[in-house]
């Protein structure tokens, strides 16, 4: 251990000391005193010897040696011949003088009674204080203040050794300084002489008693505290200096003793008991600390450990000098001392420089700190303001740029879609030519007449841009070829032949085509040529399962019969046409891929824009995002209104066979992939009016369900437009024949529509949604492409509402607290209201018919209420739902629900909400979502 405080260059350089907050082990040394006169007289032998500066060994001549370790190593070991000066220099000085650097420090003397603790500590204390005086002498640039105090802990009572008053002192817990002794006398040490006086007072005051082992046995623990405060003169005059303040403790513990050895009794015995108990606590604390502070450290179990808490593993540098008697008679006590020393050397402390600031300096420093913080705040504010403004501008320009790009992409996509439609629509010419060529080759009839009866439409599924639904229809009246598609999905290849048509397409049959055969495998190819003649395009209807139906009378129509024959004949492929076809396929593929890429970019841009604009709530997750490009190339309508056609009902009956009973509505699904392509052609685009017939018409009741509102969503909302573009492109030929009635608008996936509607209906029931809302929604949305958006929104709103209802009472954000119970209650009230309306709105005759229809006894009590409570209850029965909607619609007066636009479905789902129109149904819906 080197001398601390002696090196001027490092006195005030706390960092160079490396002790600021750094962990440091307790410095443990052992001092072995010589056998004293008494021991020598007893012919006691010395059991211990020091073999080096750090190792003490047990005397091998003693038989018990085998029971104990024979060698102990410590930071320093001092033999019997070592002077106290050396013990101080090498075992305590550095620690003691670190007080001059602002570190608290403690020097302990621990050992059995009469082992030389007092002898050692007296010397160490004097040497240390002498060095401190010396240091002060050498550092006139600083002003030092030494404060001396002393106390003893006698029989677990703290006493002031500098005061004649032996009143026990209280221990106080100070949050900063730890345990402090209240009213402890503190003398400012003036000089060496003063120190000697004070030490003498302490000696005089300390409890000393005679035991058989020590004539002057210390019966108490003595703690001498020397607090060193220092500050530089130059700063003192400026009034803003900080002061280093630290305390060094010189602790002379009472010695552990055996009553049998000390022959103590009475007072001595009691003293010894307290001494041993407090030393036991000290040993426990040291042992616990040596194991890494695991668990509770019982500092408060004794006043000694409580007062010395900081010195034992806290903010202090600590050195322990363990004193030992070498006498064989004290072997047991010596071993205990060495055991204690072994534990102590494992204990770590964490000393920090203690700086005390003067009030003036403190005020000045606080002012500086405040100014600095204010400055930082200003800078931060200015910086963040600048950042916010620039960030905002950046985002705005980004949004504008994205908007432009998005519009461009949408335009390109639309053009691409139109291009494909154009290619396909003009394909009939090519098809006619090729078919005619083929027919000529096989002596068949010209195909032009047949082609005039054909229709084709193409549907682009934006959700799955790889898919293009090609809808080819050949009208035939009652006879038809039906291509349900390999999967039986909703998109079917529609192929109807006109009764009067004389020609049909060429089929390359791959299986037997017997009259009346069903599920015949056929390979059907439709070569299509572009009108622009820029490139040749080919659409190919892949291998499909063909169902051939007879006339009612069991005979085949001529065209059907001929077609079947043609199909069975299997025209050989024209090798010359194949490259052309491939080229066309490639172009279509290129177009489709371009569309796909553009759509992705649009979606990406819009998604990002919404995110940027904080309008993510408008996003409709899981939306089918299906865009339709339906194009008729037929001179006749391809979707003929049939009196018995109720598509929605048919769909309900069989999801996997989307063909009408009459079989006049079929589609074929054609999937094509197209690479990117740039378009510049200007193609006239015209939107067709929505001409779908009301699939919910109810002939029995003459009820007029809502007519279609405009299916076309505003282009102002580009997202909406992307989601629900429904464009019908007609060639002049189509236009000229449009008045034949019907429409070529292609419906979206009916199974998807059904799935959504079913989910919605179930959620209506789960959430006890008002029947009026259900009715209006049910009647207004029937599967039109644009309906999907509304349905997705409705589904999402309902899902969220269900989460709310089934979770716990939550505010809906509209000032209402909705629970499942309250919804149900409101629903019951609505049913009661409807039952009352029945009396006013329905004639008794009609009511009776309703009772009978709904299986209610016409003479039973509360018949109207029964009916009101029956409607909208069976979510699985679509007929029930439809009838329920009809009843409610009549009661509420939805005579022309079509006047109520779809936009009204931004209204609240909650009971009591008055249906109203919303200017922006999406934002309204978003508020609920
Ligand atoms: N290293 C030493 N060299 C010579 N004499 C010593 C040494 N250590 C102690 N002594 C003597 O041994 C006797 C007991 O010493 P001291 O009183 O310091 O023991 P102690 O540990 O303080 O005992 P207690 O715990 O009973 O107070 C004293 O007379 C002292 O002078």
From TrEMBL:
Domain (Kinesin motor) ranges: 25-347
UniProt record, GO biological process: microtubule-based movement
Any one GO cellular component localisation term in the record: microtubule
Biased composition range(s): Polar residues: 698-707
Keyword Glycoprotein: no
Keywords, in A-Z order: ATP-binding, Coiled coil, Microtubule, Motor protein, Nucleotide-binding
GO MF entries: ATP binding; microtubule binding; microtubule motor activity
Domain of life: Eukaryota
CDD domains linked to this entry: KISc_CENP_E
InterPro entries, alphabetized: Kinesin-like_fam (IPR027640), Kinesin_motor_CS (IPR019821), Kinesin_motor_dom (IPR001752), Kinesin_motor_dom_sf (IPR036961), NACK_C (IPR021881), P-loop_NTPase (IPR027417)
UniProt region (Disordered), positions on chain: 690-742
Signal peptide segment: none
Similarity comment: family membership: Belongs to the TRAFAC class myosin-kinesin ATPase superfamily. Kinesin family. KIN-7 subfamily.
Protein's name in the database: Kinesin-like protein
